[in-house]
Amino acid sequence: QVQLVESGGGLVQAGGSLRLSCAASGRTLSLYTMGWFRQAPGKEREFVAAITRSGRIIHYADSVEGRTTISRDNAKNTVYLQMNSLKPDDTAVYYCAAASTYISVMDPQEYDSWGQGTQVTVSS
Question: Which of 37, 81, 89, 111 has its CA 20 to 30 A from that of 65?
Answer without folding.
Answer: 111
